[in-house]
């Protein structure tokens, strides 16, 4: 058991990092009162997923997937996850933009972006 | 003939061009926006009907985007299931676009109309894309296109709480999308492909891997949040209540159905029935949760004081019915479930249209302000009563037929208790539908009381709002009577899900 845990942890530490980051992000989304901090949490959560994709694409000793006419470097990193994640990053940025603009509107209407004060403000209206 | 082969991609590309056109034309003249949107929707509807007839005659239509064959390129697939969903959602989108012109004049501020139409187009494109794509990452991208458009559309309302509702929906929706993305990643690691058909072939070899189990759970949770399946429905009531009525009609009918479609597609076409029944037995769990959803959604609906919120909780209950089909997972129940996707879209669309019509005329959606409204708006209230009867499941309506098949399927699988709960859910539906009917028809002056009716100047809504409402209500009845042609489409679709021809 004692040698088992470090083995599982260190041999796949990249996945563990992604999971830890994801949980930090989820924690921030759930526990933070401030709406902007919630969005930061959401971004951490999404970034964890991007890192997960990028790390599983890695091939030890692989190079960039550039076509060589000699056909020498056959070992290259899988480029597809990178492409997918480019799309996902664009999606993440647009979600952040929509969220921030909603936060601006919420602040204009209710004068606060703290969840507890917001609940209060909604009740008073 | 050449053009006919290109129809699947034209459905997406031309709509995207039309979106740009709406944006450009809106700069010069706001009034042409609606015309462009309407034309696009009609085009999309016609194309989807053409595609469905082709699928029915010739079998599955596959389109390779850019001519790249599936393992490398993206594939659009229209089979009997996605064709059925496509026609359903496009018909309802058409009805709600006809409905929304007058409605948004009152509920969306004037300066937001151009962006409203652009977002509306994007929402529909995203949903079409989700329906016809054969590639799971493509599904994610279209899901996000439609979701982002939906978040922004909810916030176009004049009601200031809509910003908070949209924000909450955004956070939950993004977590859901994140889970789906993670699930896609896991599937890609396991198989090295993103194509649905190929995944279905390659996955059985690794059904015992925990990576696949993780992917499966992430997918289920992600799509369940999107479809507002019971414990994960928390975004739904606020979002449906605060959005402009026309948007509520659209997201409650079209968007919710496509999310459920995507869940079915994942569970049955990517993970095969043998996986969800044998390798990772989740159907029993879904069965239990869906019955809880049916009862809890209906009970929560009964407790509401706001008509739109009542209907929103009723949606939670009805999603339970559709998921119930998934839990039973035999042919008859799945036919019932697919029929309920169509039926629920038609009747809930009609009910939300009536709620929107009342907001249009009376400016309120509180039930207590609607006393005696049937004397003012007789046609709308009659439409509500008809669609409500279908929601309850009174015999000749579509709601009866779908629940009939669901109960038959449950009995066929020997689930007597669940069939009983299904019927109890219908009884609860009587209560919440009756709450509106009673207030609209039987409350008010005729009790000889001295309380004057609330100052309510409105009469019936304009014809452009009335026509789609009434036609949907009549359709509830018509589809229930002429069930044969519908079953001709639903039957093959359900068989397809279970892996038959």
Give a quick rundown of the structure.
The complex is a heterodimer of chains A (125) and B (501). Chain A contains five helices and no strands.
Q: Describe it for me?
A:
The complex is a heterodimer of chains A (125) and B (501). Chain A is 73% helix and 0% strand. By secondary structure, chain A is an all-alpha fold. In chain B, α13 packs parallel to α19. Chain B has a two-stranded antiparallel sheet. Chain B contains 21 helices and two strands.
Based on CA atoms alone, the radius of gyration of chain A comes out at: 21 Å
Helix/strand-derived category of chain B reads: mainly alpha
Q: pLDDT below 50 for ≥5 consecutive residues: which ranges of chain A? A: none
So how many helices of chain A?
A: 5
- Which structural class best describes the helix and strand composition of chain A? mainly alpha
* Elements of chain B, N to C (H/E): HHHEEHHHHHHHHHHHHHHHHHH
CA-based shape of chain A: elongated
| Oligomer state of the chains in this structure | heterodimer
Global mean pLDDT of chain B: 83
Order of helices and strands of chain A: HHHHH
Contiguous helical run count of chain B = 21
Number of strands of chain A: 0
**Uncertain parts of chain B:** 446-452
Q: What is the percentage of strand-forming residues of chain A? A: under 5%
Largest interface (CB < 8 Å) = A-B, 31 and 25 residues
Strand coverage percent of chain B: under 5%
- Roughly how much helix do the residues of chain A carry, as a percent range? over 70%
């Amino acid at each position: 058991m004692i040698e088992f845990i470090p083995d599982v942890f260190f041999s796949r530490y990249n996945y563990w990092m992604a999971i830890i980051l994801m949980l930090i992000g989820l924690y921030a989304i759930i526990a933070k009162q401030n709406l902007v901090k919630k969005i930061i949490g959401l971004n951490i959560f999404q970034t964890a997923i991007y890192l997960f994709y990028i790390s599983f694409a890695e091939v030890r000793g692989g190079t960039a997937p550039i076509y060589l006419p000699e056909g020498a470097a056959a070992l290259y990193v899988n480029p597809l996850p990178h492409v997918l994640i480019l799309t996902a990053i664009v999606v993440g940025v647009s979600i952040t933009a929509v969220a921030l603009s909603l936060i601006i509107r919420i602040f204009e209407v209710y004068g606060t972006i703290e969840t507890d004060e917001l609940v209060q403000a909604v009740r008073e209206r | 003939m050449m053009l006919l082969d290109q129809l699947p991609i034209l459905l997406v590309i031309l709509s995207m061009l039309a979106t740009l056109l709406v944006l450009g034309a809106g700069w010069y003249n706001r009034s042409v926006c609606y015309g462009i949107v309407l034309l696009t929707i009609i085009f999309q509807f016609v194309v989807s009907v053409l595609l469905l007839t082709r699928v029915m005659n010739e079998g599955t239509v596959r389109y390779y985007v850019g001519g790249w064959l599936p393992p490398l390129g993206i594939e659009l697939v229209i089979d009997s299931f996605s064709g059925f969903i496509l026609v359903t959602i496009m018909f309802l989108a058409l009805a709600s676009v006809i409905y929304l012109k007058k409605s948004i004049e009152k509920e969306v501020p004037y300066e937001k109309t151009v962006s409203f139409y652009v977002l509306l187009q994007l929402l529909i494109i995203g949903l079409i894309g989700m329906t016809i794509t054969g590639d799971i990452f493509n599904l994610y991208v279209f899901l996000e296109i439609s979701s982002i458009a939906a978040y922004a559309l909810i916030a176009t309302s004049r009601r200031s709480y809509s910003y908070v509702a949209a924000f909450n929906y955004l956070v939950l929706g993004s977590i859901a999308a994140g889970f789906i993305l993670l699930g896609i990643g896991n599937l890609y690691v396991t198989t090295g492909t993103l194509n649905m058909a190929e995944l279905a072939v390659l996955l059985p070899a690794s059904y015992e891997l925990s990576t696949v189990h993780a992917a499966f759970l992430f997918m289920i949770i992600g799509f369940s949040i999107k479809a507002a399946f019971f414990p994960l429905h928390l975004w739904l009531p606020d979002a449906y209540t605060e959005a402009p009525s026309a948007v509520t009609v659209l997201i409650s009918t079209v968007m919710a159905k496509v999310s459920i479609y995507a869940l079915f597609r994942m569970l049955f076409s990517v993970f095969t029935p043998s996986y969800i029944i044998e390798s990772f037995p989740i159907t029993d769990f879904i069965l239990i949760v869906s019955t809880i959803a049916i009862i809890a959604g209906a009970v929560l609906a009964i407790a509401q004081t706001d008509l739109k919120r009542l209907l929103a909780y009723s949606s939670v209950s009805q999603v339970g019915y559709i998921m119930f089909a998934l839990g039973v997972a035999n042919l008859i129940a799945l036919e019932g479930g697919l029929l309920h996707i169509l039926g629920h879209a038609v009747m809930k669309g009609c009910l939300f249209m009536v709620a929107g019509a009342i907001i249009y005329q009376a400016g309120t959606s509180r039930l207590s302000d609607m006393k005696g409204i049937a004397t003012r708006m007789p046609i709308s209230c009659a439409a509500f009563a008809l669609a409500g009867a279908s929601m309850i499941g009174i015999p000749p309506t579509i709601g009866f037929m779908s629940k009939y098949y669901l109960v038959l399927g449950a009995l066929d699988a020997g689930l007597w208790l669940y069939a009983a709960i299904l019927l109890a859910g219908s009884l609860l539906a009587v209560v919440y539908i009756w709450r509106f009917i009673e207030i609209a028809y039987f409350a008010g002056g005729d009790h000889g009381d001295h309380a004057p009716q609330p100052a309510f100047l409105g009469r019936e809504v304009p014809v452009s709002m009335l026509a789609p409402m009434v036609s949907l209500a009549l359709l509830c009845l018509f589809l229930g009577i002429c069930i044969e042609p519908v079953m001709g489409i639903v039957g093959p679709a359900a068989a397809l899900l279970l892996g038959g021809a």
